[in-house]
């Protein structure tokens, strides 16, 4: 037996009463987890000791009821189970960090491949904060068997490449990983490229939407390729995928090889503003030929609707438009902005098939998606016709 780790509470019962005790727990505490399954059950002589986890109130209550039933509650040294897997961070950190630093434990965190990325609440005047962060990251590795590396978010997503400053905290020192999502795999570097696992449902929705055979699709801000790859995995389509970040472009190229895709993807490392320039080869080739445009650059996508309108067929096409919108009425504001912008480029909304909140972005704003079928303004077409 391993050495004891401090005193804990036990139910002490005679072996012959053990079953009665189990019944007792089930009867009085059907919904509470009274047994402390981190510790071993002990047998000594004719007695069995069941480790329990109880509040002061429960303890008082139990002492009354337990005494009536000849069940004793005692405190003695406990022995942790060797193979015990902690269920969450709080539990793993229970006796490792001071109680007042529990507010520092992140409520949720992102896992990209085998790398966890934590964001800590700022707690003023907490001593040894860096040491506590290390202990929390150790617990993240302990609780998540696939996590090998832990980073901390330092800054906001920023710059043209939409990356953020990260600080290495614990585990294998590396920033490249392979993330699995919706039956696809994506190799990426969390420091050099943008990637968020929080769009998993969004990418699923788009790739499972009503995409027709042989569509021409443009992914304007493709990153390492998650939208393009997931669509091309399921559909026989042609996708032109752009990103100005050379690292994202290189990973996207690798990801085309990593995944078994049905459609064709043509990756480009360029700034999509160039697509509208008169002598841009690919921009000229795709002008008014595109059935669908994906615009996943929520901070600035509205500045690129001229590009989308340049590409989309005059007879009509679909735009998947993502943007951040200020509360309140985030969806309505986003729709108005989208409509106002495309009208400026002689297009109008034929139908909005979806307008909804993708996720909360900040206390003041949401990320919104608008899926819209847009067409070139008829009066304009008539003028051209005459
Ligand atoms: C928010 S990320 C989205 C990436 C990807 N769609 C995803 O879901 O992971 C936006 C991407 O757009 C790229 N980007 C930003 N401005 C661009 C531009 N003008 N032309 C091409 N790519 C651009 C950034 O490098 C970044 O990879």
Largest sheet: 7 strands, mixed
**Proportion of beta-strand residues:** 25-35%
Number of domains: 3
- Give the strand line-up of the largest sheet: 13-12-11-14-15-17-16
The helix count comes to 11
Alpha-beta content class: alpha/beta
Q: Which radius of gyration do the C-alpha atoms yield?
A: 29 Å
- Residue windows where pLDDT falls under 50 for at least 5 positions: none
* E-strand count: 17
CATH superfamily of the largest domain: Vaccinia Virus protein VP39
CATH class of the largest domain: Alpha Beta
- Helix % is 25-40%
Q: What are the secondary-structure elements, in order, as H or E? A: EHEEHEHEEHEEEEHEHEHEHEHEHEEH
Average pLDDT, rounded to a whole number, is 92
Molecules bound to protein = S-adenosylmethionine
For the record, the CATH architecture of the largest domain stands as: 3-Layer(aba) Sandwich
- CATH overall fold name of the largest domain: Rossmann fold
How far is it from the N-terminal to the C-terminal residue, by CA? Answer: 93 Å
Principal-axes shape call = elongated
Write the layout of secondary structure elements.
Blueprint: E1 7-14, H1 18-28, E2 42-44, E3 47-52, H2 56-68, E4 72-77, H3 89-93, E5 110-112, E6 115-118, H4 129-143, E7 149-153, E8 166-171, E9 176-181, E10 184-189, H5 200-207, E11 216-219, H6 226-234, E12 238-242, H7 246-258, E13 264-268, H8 281-286, E14 292-295, H9 305-311, E15 317-326, H10 330-344, E16 347-362, E17 365-376, H11 378-385
Parallel strand pairs: 6-7, 11-12, 11-14, 12-13, 14-15
Antiparallel strand pairs: 1-3, 1-4, 2-3, 5-6, 7-8, 9-10, 15-17, 16-17
Helix pairs in contact: 5-6
Bound molecules: S-adenosylmethionine.
The site of S-adenosylmethionine has 21 residues, from helix 6.
């Amino acid at each position: 037996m391993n050495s004891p780790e401090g005193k804990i509470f036990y139910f002490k019962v005679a072996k012959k009463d053990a079953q009665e005790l189990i019944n007792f727990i089930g009867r009085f505490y059907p919904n509470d987890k009274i047994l402390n399954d981190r510790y071993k059950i002990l047998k000594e002589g004719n007695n069995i000791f069941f480790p329990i986890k109880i509040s002061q109130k429960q303890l008082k209550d139990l002492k009354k009821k337990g005494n009536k039933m000849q069940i004793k509650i005692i405190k003695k040294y406990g022995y942790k189970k060797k193979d015990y897997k902690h269920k969450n961070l709080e539990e793993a950190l229970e006796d490792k960090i001071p109680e007042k630093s529990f507010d520092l434990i992140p409520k949720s965190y992102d896992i990209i491949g085998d790398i966890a990325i934590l964001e800590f609440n700022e707690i003023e005047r907490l001593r040894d904060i860096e040491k506590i962060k290390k202990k929390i990251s150790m617990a993240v590795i302990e609780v998540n068997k696939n996590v090998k590396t832990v980073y901390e978010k330092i800054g906001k997503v920023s710059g043209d490449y939409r990356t953020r400053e990260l600080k290495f905290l614990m585990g294998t020192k590396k920033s490249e990983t392979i993330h699995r999502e919706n039956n696809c795999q994506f190799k990426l570097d969390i420091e050099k490229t943008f990637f968020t696992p929080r769009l998993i449902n969004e990418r699923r929705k788009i790739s499972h939407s009503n995409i027709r055979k042989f569509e021409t699709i443009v992914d304007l801000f493709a990153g390492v390729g998650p939208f393009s790859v997931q669509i091309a995995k399921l559909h026989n389509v042609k996708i032109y995928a752009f990103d100005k970040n050379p690292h994202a472009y290189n990973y996207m190229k690798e990801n085309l090889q990593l995944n078994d895709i049905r459609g064709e993807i043509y990756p480009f490392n360029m700034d999509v503003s160039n697509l509208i320039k008169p002598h841009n080869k690919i921009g000229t080739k795709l002008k008014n030929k595109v059935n669908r445009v994906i615009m996943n650059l929520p901070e600035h996508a509205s500045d690129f609707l001229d590009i989308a309108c340049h590409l989309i067929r005059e007879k009509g096409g679909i735009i998947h438009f993502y943007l951040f919108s200020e509360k309140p009425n985030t969806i309505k504001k986003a729709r108005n902005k989208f409509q106002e912008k495309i009208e400026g480029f002689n297009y109008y909304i034929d139908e909005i098939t979806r307008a909804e909140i993708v996720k909360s972005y900040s206390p003041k704003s949401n990320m919104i998606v608008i899926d819209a079928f847009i067409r070139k303004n008829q009066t304009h077409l008539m003028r051209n016709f005459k």
